[in-house]
UniProtKB/TrEMBL annotation:
DNA ligase that catalyzes the formation of phosphodiester linkages between 5'-phosphoryl and 3'-hydroxyl groups in double-stranded DNA using NAD as a coenzyme and as the energy source for the reaction. It is essential for DNA replication and repair of damaged DNA. NCBIfam families: dnlj, PRK07956.1. The keyword Magnesium applies. NAD(+) binds at D55, G56, E57, Y58, D59, S104, L105, E135, R158, E196, K320, K344. Its EC number is 6.5.1.2. Keywords: DNA damage, DNA repair, DNA replication, Ligase, Magnesium, Manganese, Metal-binding, NAD, Zinc. InterPro entries: BRCT_dom, BRCT_dom_sf, DisA/LigA_HHH, DNA_ligase, DNAligase_adenylation, DNAligase_N, Hlx-hairpin-Hlx_DNA-bd_motif, NA-bd_OB-fold. One of its GO terms (molecular function) is DNA ligase (NAD+) activity. Its cofactor is Mg(2+); Mn(2+). Residues 620-699 form the BRCT domain. Belongs to the NAD-dependent DNA ligase family. LigA subfamily. This is DNA ligase.
Length: 699
């Protein structure tokens, strides 16, 4: 999209603006230069994932444009980066007609179906062989985009295929959709494009973690999260969900007067390359062109094997006749095009019987209903327990004990109940009754205003005490191996363990008398407990189970202090100045450190030898890998990814979230996937194995 000369010019222009940022710009020409610079950096960040400036620098330039346009509203253009932002929508979405119907694809589930598709296509065209393009079938929400005179004028949902909802305002919140594109350079006046709205797995996980911390039900899966977001009436919430779009088809176009159809629109692969060059994210790197159906089948099978290593959910592959003129010859039925077919991967859904619902008490007192179902094998695992999250979810889904339910498990996402199959009800099904008292201590449950979860507020509740200890010793907290959930519960029931400090006062002589605890296992447990005292401060903060404080927030807090107890001196206002800490999180932290019982527990832990000084911060700057950036992908031979990241950070290294020009080393394991492909294309990233990484760490 941008030539080397354009890139240099736009980067120079950016640096010129950043050197001396005025209150407002004084000329229309300078304002348009700033818009061009911002569009360029949005492309680098959102399409290429290779930013040239920091988020803070981008924000400074964006604010300058906002101030300038506010003072000179007549200078605002429809494709200005500021025009993505919109107020909350009122009323229902308008229904609009697609320029060309959005038909479904015919589905295939085996090689025979694909061979039949190839045979029919050759018969209808009279050809001996056909060239096919093959690309991932993204699992999200389908959309249609219309551009006129280079400007985005409409975005719509698929709807019934003929008509959809006009969601233009929400579409503009998605940064991978350009507000303008130079279609006129190719002689095109109006263009209709098809695409898929997605939430990648990492963003989906982070968003759900935030919902769970707030006591809200997490979103079911990335597909529903993406499709459902399009019809939210608050555009700011659409922005927060970090959706992305892959465009995969130019469905209709009109030419400018006197212009001929560009060569790029004569084949499907060239049209996707055109969209990529115009600033759209299209699957040009995942798509391949093949000259035989055998090659197509082999590629589909190869992709199915690595589907879980991809950053997005896909549920199959799409095979298209690559020649656009041949597509027109083949035409369409009333239901699907004859020139395309979807090869669907193995299903990750199953049906089962809901046998019972148990109510579990979490470490913060939240009550979670857990459905017990007849075991069913889905997506490589046997599922027998499924969280129903909270009372509201039960009511919304109208799930009942005895129902036959549809269960889904996609990739690494936790299994969930899609819906009850109400048509199979016999009349013996029973409504699920949510308790009014804690199932562990019988205290009256309480629900805060604005929250979905019922809670037990009794801090001495036995279930909460046990769950807090389980969290404290867990893998991502202090990682005390040998003291997992089963042993915590066992020691608690036997009176050997009553609270977190008790972990460091265990009676090993008594434990050695228990079945399954020989001298060797007791010694290993003792050693693991001793090692936990030296864990980094951020792990200890996370281990304390402060409400709303996850691993990322724990790291932010650890960087702020030299000693854990310094956190008790920080006000809510001071905490809110830290990265990603809002009023709710800050209030929870203040509440925890103002509780005398919590402070006594921390003092006791320190007296027992638990390190509360920020040793990493005090040695920061002296690490051999200070400033060196790492990213880990695939399954490493001996290390867990979290262990490898911790080793790099201990030496001063920094962990990045994605492949970009800022990345120094990509450490690859088995099934490395798209990150490896991207690093190889980028050419500036050094790709190393775990063995090479360990040599670097140990040198």
């Amino acid at each position: 999209m941008y030539s080397k000369e354009n890139t240099i010019a736009l980067q120079d222009s950016t640096q010129s603006f950043l050197k001396n940022i005025p209150d407002v710009l004084t000329s229309k020409e300078e304002t348009e230069k700033l818009r061009d610079a911002l569009r360029f950096h949005e492309y680098r960040y959102y399409i290429l994932n290779d930013p040239f400036i920091s988020d803070g620098e981008y924000d400074q330039l964006f604010k300058l444009l906002e101030r300038t346009e506010k003072q000179h509203p007549d200078w605002i253009t429809k494709d200005s980066p500021t025009q993505r932002v919109a107020k909350e929508l009122t009323g229902n979405f308008l229904t609009v007609q697609h320029l060309v119907p959005m038909l479904s694809l015919d589905n295939s589930y085996n090689e025979e179906d694909l061979r039949d598709f190839d045979r029919r296509a050759r018969q209808l065209t009279g050809l001996d062989s056909i060239v096919y393009s093959v690309e991932p079938k993204f699992d999200g929400g389908s959309i249609s985009l219309v551009y006129e005179n280079d400007l985005l004028v409409r975005g719509a949902t698929r709807g019934n295929g003929v008509q959809g909802d006009d969601v233009t305002t929400n579409i503009k919140q998605i940064r991978t959709i350009p507000l303008s594109a130079r279609f006129s350079d190719y002689g095109l006046q109006q263009v209709e494009i098809r695409g898929e709205v997605l939430m990648n797995k990492e963003n989906f996980k982070k968003y759900n973690e935030a919902l769970i911390e707030k006591g809200l039900a997490p979103l079911a899966n990335p597909r529903n999260a993406a499709a459902g977001t399009l019809r939210i009436k608050d555009p700011s919430e659409v922005r927060r969900r970090n959706l992305e779009v892959f465009v995969y088809h130019i469905s209709d176009y009109t030419l400018l007067p006197g212009k001929d159809t560009p060569k790029a629109l004569l084949s499907h692969d060239a049209s996707l390359q055109l969209l990529w060059e115009l600033g759209f994210r299209s699957p040009v790197h995942e798509m391949h062109v093949f000259r035989s159906i055998d090659e197509v089948i082999a590629y589909c099978r190869e992709f199915e094997e690595k589907r879980d290593s991809l950053p997005y959910e896909i549920d199959g592959m799409v095979i298209k006749v690559n020649d656009i003129q041949l597509q027109e010859v083949l035409g369409m039925t009333s239901h699907h095009p004859r020139w395309a077919i979807a090869f669907k991967f193995k299903a990750r859904q199953g049906t089962s019987k809901l046998l019972n619902v148990e109510f579990q008490v979490g470490r913060t007192g939240s009550i979670t209903p857990v459905a017990k179902i007849d075991p069913v094998y889905i997506g490589g695992v046997t599922v027998s327990s499924i969280s129903l999250f909270n009372e509201d979810v039960i009511r919304e889904k109208d799930v009942r004990i005895g129902d036959t339910v549809l269960v889904e498990r996609a990739g690494d996402v936790i299994p969930y109940i899609v819906k009850p199959l109400t048509e199979l009800r016999s009349g013996t099904e029973r409504p699920i009754t949510f308790p009014s008292h804690c199932p562990a201590c019988n205290s009256t449950l309480f629900k805060e205003e604005g929250e979905a979860a019922w809670r037990c507020v009794n801090i001495e509740c036995s279930a909460q005490v046990v769950e807090r200890m389980i969290h404290y010793v867990s893998k991502d907290a202090l990682d005390i191996r040998g003291l997992g959930e089963a042993n915590i519960k066992k020691f608690y029931e036997l009176g050997l363990l009553k609270d977190i400090p008790g972990i460091y006062k265990l009676n090993f002589a008594a434990i050695s008398q228990l079945e399954g605890f020989g001298a060797k296992s007791v010694e290993k447990l003792k050693e693991a407990i001793e090692q936990s005292k030296k864990q980094p401060l951020h792990r200890l903060i996370f281990a304390l189970g402060i409400r709303y404080v996850g691993e990322t927030t724990a790291k932010v807090l650890a960087q702020k202090v030299n000693h854990l107890l310094e956190l008790k001196d920080l006000s809510q206002e001071a905490l809110q100045t830290l990265e990603d800490i809002g009023p709710k999180v800050a209030g929870s932290i203040v509440h925890f450190f103002s509780n005398e019982d919590n402070l006594k527990m921390l003092q006791e832990l320190e007296a027992l030898g638990v390190e509360m000084n920020n040793v990493q911060k005090q040695t920061h700057g002296s690490g051999e890998l200070e400033g060196v950036t790492f990213l880990f992908t695939g399954t490493l031979p001996t290390l867990k990814r979290s262990e490898a990241e911790a080793m790099a950070e201990a030496k001063g290294g920094k962990i990045l979230s994605g492949v970009s020009a800022k990345l120094n080393y990509l450490v690859v394991g088995k099934d490395a996937g798209s990150k490896l492909d991207k690093a190889q294309k980028l050419g500036t990233v050094k790709i190393i194995t775990e063995e090479e990484f360990l040599k670097m760490i140990n040198t």
